[in-house]
Design brief:
474 residues, alpha/beta, 13 helices, 22 strands, 28% helix, binds flavin-adenine dinucleotide
C-alpha cells in the first residue's frame, strides 16, 4: 500500500445510509472518510425512488386522457407518447436530484475517497491504493438487482432499474419478471404508456401484499392494463430476434425483459470473510438490528446492505443509528418506527404496521371499506380501492392495515402515525374528517371495525365533556 491513513470512522458507501451516517459522525469528529465505489449520487436519486416516480407521474398524466372526454375536455385522442422525450424528461429530473446529493458531498474534500473498499481486518480497509486504519467502520454498500444466471438471453435484452432509465427508446413489448413493489410500479406505468407488458411472478402475491382480499383486488386492477402470469417459476429463452418467457403452460414472446426479482445486499467483494465471523447464505455477518453493530466488533452495517428494511426512510434511520453509535463508547439501542411500505401504483398500495400474515392467527377484528362508490374517489374518477384495518379485539388498538386506495400514500401515513401512537379505533373516530375527502373511507373502515371489537361504545363518536351533564332544562 502506497499510503496509510488513520481515522476515527470509515464509512463504506456514499448512498443515503452512508451520507446519513457521516452527518452524525461529523457532529463529534472530522477524522472520518467516506469511501464510495461505483457512481455517486445514491441509488434513490440515480436509479431508484426518484426516476421511477417521475416515470409513474408521466404515465399517470397520460392515462388520465381516458376520463377527459367525459369531463368535457376534448382532443385527448390526439395525445401520444414520444419515448425519447419521456426518457429525457426522466433523466433530466433525475440529474436534478443527483446534483442535490453531489452538492452535499462536495464539502467533504479529502474526506471523500473514490474507490472500492476491502476489509483486511475488522478495522483495516484497503481502497484506491490506500490503507485505512479506522477505530470504527460502517458498511453502507447498498444493494443491487438480482438477475438469474440461468436465463438464456443476451445481456442487452435484460433490463433492470439500473439500466431502464438510461434507454433512449423502449421496445414495443416487454416482460416484467417479479411483481414486488418495483415490478408493479414499473409494469403498470410502462403499460399505461402504451407498451405491451406481461407480468410474471412465481408467487401469487403482488407488491408485498399478504391480505388475500387486497391482493386479489389489486391483481384484478392490474390485469385491466396488463396480463399477469403467476404461481410458477419463469424460464427465459433466446429465440433469435425475440425472447420467449415461459411460466407454467403459458409462453409469451417479447423484445426485452425488465427483471425486478428483488435486490441483494452488495457485500460479495467486501472481504467480509476477514471479519472472523460466520456469514449467512447472502454473505452477511450477524448483527444487532437495534444497534446495527456487527457481532461484537467495532463495525456497523446500515441500509440496504443489511437486507432488513430496504426502503429509503429506514435506510436513512439506519445511517443515523450507525453514525451515532460509531462515535460512542458503547452502542445504543434505538426503537424503530412503525412499518410503512408504499407502492406507487394506481390505486396506491400500502402495508402499514403488522401485515395480515403477521396477525392472521391473533385475536383481531378486521374493518373493510371499498372505494368504488366513495364520494371523493368518484369526483376524481379514481373509483377503485379497498382498505382493510386490523384492530386488537380486546384493546381496540389499531395494529395494522393493508390497502390499495386512491391517494393511499396519505391514508398510509395517517394509519402509521395512529399505530405508532397506539391509538384505539374509538380514539381515531374522535378525530375530524373533512368532506368530501378520501379519508372518509378510513372512517367507514374504522366504524366497521369498531362494531366488531369487544368494547362497545354508544353511537356517538364525539367524546363527552368532563363535566358531563350541565345546565337545566326546566
Ligand atoms: C427502482 C427503485 C425504486 C425505489 N423506490 C423507492 C421508493 O419509492 N421509496 C423508498 O422508500 N425506497 C425506494 N427504493 C429503495 C431505496 O432506493 C433504497 O432503499 C436506498 O436507496 C438504499 O440506500 P443505501 O444507502 O442503503 O444504498 P445506496 O444508495 O445503493 O448506496 C450504496 C453505495 O455503496 C457503494 N458501494 C458498494 N460496494 C462498495 C464497496 N465495496 N466499496 C465502496 N463503495 C461501495 C455503491 O456504489 C453505492 O454508491 C427504490 C429502489 C429502487 C431500485
Amino acid at each position: 500500500m502506497s499510503t496509510e491513513r488513520n481515522v476515527d470512522v470509515a464509512i463504506i458507501g456514499a448512498g443515503t445510509a452512508g451520507l446519513s451516517a457521516i452527518s452524525e459522525v461529523r457532529k463529534v469528529t472530522e477524522h472520518v472518510v467516506l469511501i464510495n465505489g461505483g457512481p455517486t449520487g445514491t441509488t434513490c436519486a440515480r436509479v431508484g425512488c426518484m426516476p421511477s416516480k417521475v416515470l409513474i407521474q408521466v404515465a399517470s398524466d397520460f392515462y388520465r386522457r381516458h376520463v377527459l372526454t367525459s369531463e368535457g375536455i376534448l382532443g385527448s385522442e390526439g395525445l401520444h407518447i414520444d419515448w425519447t422525450k419521456v426518457l429525457a424528461h426522466v433523466r433530466s429530473l433525475r440529474d436534478h436530484f443527483v446534483r442535490g446529493v453531489l452538492k452535499t458531498m462536495e464539502e467533504l474534500g479529502d474526506r471523500y475517497i473514490q474507490g472500492y473498499a476491502y476489509f483486511r481486518e475488522p478495522t483495516v480497509l484497503d481502497t484506491d491504493g490506500q490503507r485505512i486504519r479506522a477505530k470504527r467502520i460502517i458498511i453502507a454498500t447498498g444493494s443491487s438487482p438480482t438477475v438469474p444466471q440461468t436465463w438464456q438471453a443476451p445481456a442487452d435484452r435484460i433490463l433492470t432499474t439500473d439500466t431502464l432509465f438510461e434507454q433512449e427508446h423502449l421496445p414495443s413489448s416487454m416482460a416484467v419478471i417479479g411483481l414486488g413493489a418495483i415490478g408493479v410500479e414499473m409494469g403498470q406505468a410502462l403499460a399505461r404508456l402504451g407498451l405491451h407488458i406481461t407480468g410474471f411472478d412465481q408467487s401469487d402475491r403482488v407488491a408485498g401484499l399478504t391480505d388475500p382480499q387486497v391482493n386479489g383486488y389489486m391483481r384484478t386492477v392490474l390485469e385491466r392494463t396488463f396480463p399477469l402470469y403467476t404461481g410458477a417459476a419463469v424460464e427465459v429463452r433466446d429465440e433469435g430476434e425475440i425472447l420467449s418467457v415461459h411460466c407454467d403452460k403459458k409462453t409469451v414472446y417479447v423484445d426485452k425483459l425488465l427483471t425486478s426479482l428483488g435486490r441483494r445486499p452488495q457485500v460479495a467483494q467486501l472481504g467480509l470473510e476477514n471479519l472472523g465471523l460466520p456469514l449467512d447464505e447472502r454473505g452477511l455477518p450477524p448483527y444487532d438490528p437495534t444497534t446495527l453493530q456487527v457481532g461484537h466488533l467495532p463495525v456497523f452495517i446500515a441500509g440496504d446492505a443489511n437486507g432488513d428494511r430496504p426502503i429509503l426512510h429506514e435506510t436513512a434511520d439506519e445511517g443515523h443509528i450507525a453514525g451515532f453509535n460509531s462515535v460512542q463508547e458503547q452502542p445504543h439501542c434505538f426503537q424503530r418506527r412503525t412499518r410503512l411500505n408504499i407502492v406507487f401504483s394506481e390505486p396506491q398500495i400500502a402495508v402499514v404496521g403488522n401485515s395480515f400474515a403477521e396477525l392472521q392467527h391473533q385475536d383481531v377484528a378486521i374493518g373493510t371499506v371499498r372505494f368504488e362508490t366513495q364520494g371523493r374517489a368518484t369526483i376524481m374518477a379514481e373509483r377503485s380501492g379497498i382498505l382493510r384495518l386490523y384492530s386488537d379485539t380486546q384493546t381496540s388498538q389499531l395494529r395494522g392495515a393493508e390497502l390499495a386506495a386512491p391517494r393511499g400514500e396519505h391514508l398510509a401515513h395517517l394509519l402509521a402515525w395512529a399505530i405508532q401512537q397506539r391509538l384505539t379505533v374509538f380514539e381515531m373516530l374522535q378525530m375530524p374528517f373533512y368532506h368530501p375527502v378520501i379519508e372518509e373511507g378510513l372512517r367507514t373502515a374504522l366504524r366497521d371495525v369498531a362494531r366488531q371489537v369487544h368494547e362497545q361504545r354508544s353511537g356517538f363518536e364525539l367524546a363527552l365533556c368532563d363535566s358531563g351533564a350541565v345546565g337545566n332544562m326546566g
